[in-house]
Structure formats: C-alpha cells, structure tokens
Design brief:
Length: 284
C-alpha cells in the first residue's frame, strides 16, 4: 500500500492514527518539499519510507520571491488598482513612488538551494547580497553568488533594503521573525516570505506595517492558510499576497508529480526512493 500526501489542507494530514491503521503501508510520497503534514516519526518507527520533492521547485520558488520583491518595491498591486479605477482621470506621477531595486541590498535568511537561486537573480539587479544561515557557506559557494555571511540576524536586518525569508520550517525557526526583528529593519525595508507562514509572528507584522517600522511586505505563505477573512493584514495596502503559489507553474508541478510517482513506485518495489526524507533514511 502507498499513500500520496499532497499537503496544503487539514484533510491531507498523514497522522499517527492513519499510518497505524494501514499495516500493509510501505511508502508515503509527499507532493511538496515540506513534509510537516506527515508524521515521519511514526513512519520511521514502523519502517515506512517517506518521499518528497526537493530540487525540482527551486527555480519557480525563487522566481515568486523576486516577483513579490519587485511588486512590493514598485507597488504594482496599488498601481494596477489606480490604472483600473473608473474615477482615475489623471495618473499620480510624482506622488506615487516606490523603492529602487537595482543596486540595493538584499538579505537572504536561509541560504539553501532556493536562497542561492534568489541570490543569483539578485545579481541581475546589481544588488549587494548578504545572507544569514545556520552555517556559513564555503568561500567558493559565496564567490559564485557574491554573497557575504552575517552571523547575527539582527545585524543583517539593519543593513538590508529587502529581506527574503526562505528558511526551513523547524522547531528552531518557529516565529523567528517577530517584533524585535521588524524593529531592527529599515523603515524603508521590505520583507518577503516564501518559506512557511509559521516562521513569522503575524501580529508583529501587523504592527510593523501599521506603525511604519517597515514599508511593505510580500507574502506567499501565511499561518494559517488562508488567513481568516477578517485578519487585519488583509485590509492593509502596504502588503502584497500570493496564495502559496511558489511552485505553481505547469512545468514545475509536472516535475513534482513525476518525482512523487517515482517515489511511490520505488517504495512499492522496495528500491531506493528518488528523494527520501532523512528521518526515514536514518531509521533503516
């Protein structure tokens, strides 16, 4: 027996009760990179392998990060509303200004595969690249993307015009961005999150945007998803949302489906999964 675990809703949680109810279960194949919706500890204990889909969505997710960064900096959503408004008779001109992206400073929190892809894109805009990570990258890895390591998170935040959060969702990163971090940012700073909503204190983000501690935010992810329809963030003009579409291109989703299918087939056959999560690899 195999389970395809798409994620993204409560109905797709693969919990202890479900796993233990399927004695013939051999493999659980997650459709996304993240697998927090799967009880991997129970799977590992029972010798059930768990697959996921890293690597194939790195480019698409880096693209949505830059989309949110550019859209937030140049106030694209607000501008679109002005251009469409039937009451608009003249354009705002000098009264509608955004932030410069070219030759600015970007801070990337989490310099893994996706963070590195974002850094490469930032170089195309002649941006200075700073990063914060659990471990410093090698000198060669830093050279390739012209990145400088900043070991103290708040020191990175103080220096950056744009902050992009792309760290993994773990117990250590839960609510890692809160009031202290937003206060450390520039008042003209723009915050982007394409990782997981649980890494950010949304109440603190509301206050930071309302009180002018930062200029704008761009979120592809929230906690919960979607936010309650009366959440104050949804009423703010200085925040741009996308509905968790980091990997949502035709090409990337097909690659993810191919990997998911390959993991299922391998699990049933008893051969190595294309991409297996470390918890079940180490349990063997």
């Amino acid at each position: 027996v195999a389970i395809c675990a798409p994620g993204g809703s409560e109905s797709s949680y693969i919990d202890k009760e479900l796993i233990e109810s399927l004695p013939a279960l051999k493999v659980i194949s997650g459709y996304f990179v993240g697998y927090e919706h799967i009880d991997v500890q129970t799977a590992a204990r029972l010798g059930i392998r768990v697959g996921h889909t890293p690597f194939v969505l790195d480019n698409a997710t880096a693209d949505i990060a830059m989309t949110l960064l550019l859209g937030s900096a140049r106030r694209i959503v607000e501008g679109d509303k002005i251009a469409r408004d039937p009451l608009t008779l003249t354009y705002p001109g000098y009264t509608f200004l955004g932030e410069e992206v070219s030759e600015s400073t970007i801070g990337i929190i989490g310099m893994g595969r996706i963070g590195t892809k974002i850094a490469k894109r930032a170089l195309g805009f002649d941006m200075k690249v700073l990063y914060h990570n659990r471990k410093q990258k090698t000198a060669e890895e830093e050279r390739v993307v012209c990145a400088t390591y900043v070991p103290v998170l708040n020191e990175l935040l103080q220096q950056c015009d744009f902050v992009v959060l792309v760290a993994p969702s773990t117990k250590e990163t839960y609510r890692m961005i809160g009031r202290e971090q937003f206060k450390a940012m520039k008042k003209t700073g723009i915050f982007i999150n394409v990782s997981r909503g649980a890494l950010v204190d949304h109440d603190a983000l509301v206050d930071a945007l309302k009180n002018g501690e930062i200029a704008h935010a761009g979120l592809d992810v929230t906690d919960p998803e979607p936010l309650p329809r009366d959440h104050p963030l949804l009423a703010m003009a200085n925040i741009t949302f996308t509905p968790h579409i980091g990997s949502a291109t035709y090409a990337t989703r097909k690659k993810m489906l191919d990997v998911t299918t390959a993991n299922i087939i391998a699990g049933i056959k008893g051969t190595p999964l294309l991409y297996e999560v470390p918890e079940t690899v180490h349990a063997k």
